[in-house]
Input
Amino acid sequence: MKLFVGLGNYGEKYARQRHNIGFMAVERLAELHGFGPWKIKFKGLAAEGEIGGEKVLLLKPETFMNESGQSVGDAARFLKISESDVVVFHDELDLPPGRIKVKTGGGNAGHNGLRSISAHLGNETVRVRLGIGHPGSKDAVAQYVLSDFAKADRIWLPDLLDAVAKATTHLARGDAQRFQTEVARQLQQSVASGRIDDSETNETRERSPRPVASGGPPGERQSKRAGALAENLAKWLSRRKSKD
Output
């Protein structure tokens, strides 16, 4: 059995904040894969179902972010789930908006939810890092993560959550690399289909690592998307360095 944990703060006040993208991810998983109803369990809300033939418990701790480990530790111990079968979806400041990366263990990079899980369970859980970007200044981090996603961010957010939910079949089977590849492929389809297109603001293009759809032959569009990706990443990194 797998334990998929979304990190966030419980309550309507926090529902649309950047810090709650982990909650958003597991909620989309539950919808797409037809999980049972959410029930109060393990100091949180839990839903049971299957993904890719694997039994999975989805968990949203209600202990607030800083004490997430209480809920996760209780669930893992009760269900006898090893650390390697615990997958944590969380916001990541050090990735550009809309990018993901999967890692096992490692440092907590100042993330209080991860720190709490390490204290209550261990440090070898699988982490799905969901990029939200960095405000540029360490002093602005707290306000940034506890603010709602900006209107411009809502262009890429639904597509990212859908891609993550659809690709989680591979994650449930333990294939993190294929999961990441499939998420990237689906986001490229969103670009090609026009769901992510030139209606974006200039600010969004600078902040987002996603290429922008354009006209022209397929080869030309692919080249432009690759160029836009490189340009956007360069701008994002440059702005971070200049503000640090």
Residues 2-150 form a domain with the Rossmann fold fold (CATH 3.40.50.1470). Helices lie at 21-32, 68-79, 112-120, 141-145, 157-172, 176-193, 202-207, 218-243. The two ends are 43 Å apart (CA to CA).
